[in-house]
TrEMBL record:
A Pfam short name: Chromate_transp
Keyword Transmembrane found: yes
Record key words, sorted: Cell membrane, Membrane, Transmembrane, Transmembrane helix
UniProt membrane topology term: Multi-pass membrane protein
InterPro entries named in the record: Chr_Tranpt_l_chain, Chromate_transpt
Chief location: membrane
Domain of life: Bacteria
Family assignment from sequence similarity: Belongs to the chromate ion transporter (CHR) (TC 2.A.51) family.
Keyword Transmembrane in record: yes
Gene from which this protein is expressed: chrA
Entry's Gene Ontology cellular component terms: plasma membrane
This protein's name: Chromate efflux transporter
Length: 396
């Protein structure tokens, strides 16, 4: 267990670049260097993470830890990989009152907000090319984006996800099924799910929906509501990474200001580890009476659904992935979340970050550099932070 924890902790200290980069780091370390599993097995875990809601790269890490050391191994992997970003974002949250009002730090944060525009735009472009190749998927993407721009709400997003799954099941199953690994077992192989974990996932989801409904009349957030908000988001985010942004913004929008939310998101760009660790910053900001408790509850709640679903399907993934209707439904959901992310790119990201022609010029320049030269995300963070600080100092 200690070995698993330390291996993932060392990766959590240096894993900049988002889910795609994390998956590359995992393959280099656990397949090529340590030989904990082979490429075929690793590829199947990556594919499973794409078909489950939750933080994609963290789910892969959890599955590797589970493969190596069972349930405790999965927990050790999660703790190791998430702890560095959790600590950094928690400390940034609890000390924000000491440094947030300085023009220098405001300039840095503004620069990081501009970087968020670049990174999310790139994520949308990549996901569009990956998930919206067919006409039906493109239509789903456009429809979901338009609806969320006009009627932004958690209930609307949930309804669109269900509708997209139904549409994908009927119209995208052939395309999705063609991507299934040829080594997958025949469709006749029985699917044996772990119903204990499935029942726990479903029970917590129903309880969270009830808790949010009962507390909707109150403007005060308690720990049960805090857990419910983040658990609900973790249960509906497909693709992980930046896709969490629109759902989180809708879920906690009444508990935290837009500026606080985008500050946390911008800071999450600047630290290594999973994007879902943003929950540590938000939880500490929302539960200011005991920020550490708030950060722990929010972080546990947003990661828990994805891990429970991984435990449900880990032993039966090959049989599940061989069913075209299942993969078709997921293809529809993936197209839908691209639309969600496109709507989030406009609001709150673009509208809160791009405030002048200089800002827009920096976004265009940064996007061009990002796509042309593909620099390490650390250099982009440093570049946008320094540029934002200089502009802030000059303007002030």
């Amino acid at each position: 267990m200690l070995q698993i924890f330390l291996r993932f902790f060392s990766l959590g200290l240096v894993s900049f670049g988002g889910p795609a980069a994390h998956i590359g780091y995992f393959r280099q370390t656990f397949v090529q260097e340590l030989n904990w599993l082979d490429d075929k097995h690793y590829g199947s875990l990556v594919a499973l993470s794409q078909f489950m809601p939750g933080p994609g790269s963290s789910q892969v890490g959890f599955a590797i830890g589970y493969h190596r050391g069972g349930l405790l191994g999965g927990i050790a992997a999660f703790l190791g990989f998430t702890l560095p970003s959790f600590i950094l974002l928690f400390l940034l949250a609890v000390t924000s009152s000491q440094w947030l009002d300085y023009s220098f730090t405001q300039g840095i944060i503004h620069g990081l907000k501009l970087l968020a525009v670049v990174v999310v735009a790139d994520a949308i472009w990549i996901m569009f090319k990956q998930f919206c190749q067919r006409k039906q998927a493109k239509l789903l993407m456009m429809f979901s984006c338009v609806i969320i721009l006009l009627q932004p709400s958690m209930l609307m997003q949930f309804g669109l996800l269900i509708a997209a799954a139904l549409v994908g099941r009927h119209y995208l199953s052939s395309a999705a099924g063609s991507e299934v690994d040829a080594s997958a077992p025949p469709l006749s192989q029985p699917v044996k799910l772990n119903f204990f974990w499935l029942s726990l996932f479903a029970g917590l989801l129903i309880a969270s929906l009830v808790a949010i409904s009962l507390s909707s009349q109150s403007s005060i957030t308690n720990l049960t509501q805090l857990f419910s908000q983040f658990y609900q988001v973790g249960s509906m985010v497909f693709g992980g990474g930046h896709v969490v942004l629109p759902l989180l913004q809708q879920s906690v929008g009444d508990s935290i200001s837009h500026d606080q939310f985008l500050t946390g998101y911008a800071l999450a760009q600047a630290v290594p580890g999973p994007m879902f660790a943003l929950a540590a910053f938000l939880g500490a900001e929302i539960w200011i009476e005991q920020p550490l408790i708030g950060a722990l509850v929010a972080t546990l709640a947003i990661f828990l659904p994805g891990f429970l679903l991984m435990l449900v399907a880990l032993k039966s993934w090959n049989a599940i992935s061989a069913k075209p209707q299942v993969t078709g439904a997921i293809a529809g959901v993936n197209a839908c979340v691209v639309g969600f992310l496109l709507a989030a790119l406009y609001t709150p990201i673009f509208t809160s970050a791009v405030l002048s022609p200089i800002d827009m010029a920096l976004v265009v320049l940064g996007f061009g550099i990002f796509k042309t030269f593909k620099p390490n995300i650390f250099f982009l963070v440093a570049g946008f932070g320094v540029t934002g600080a200089l502009i802030g100092a000059f303007v002030s």
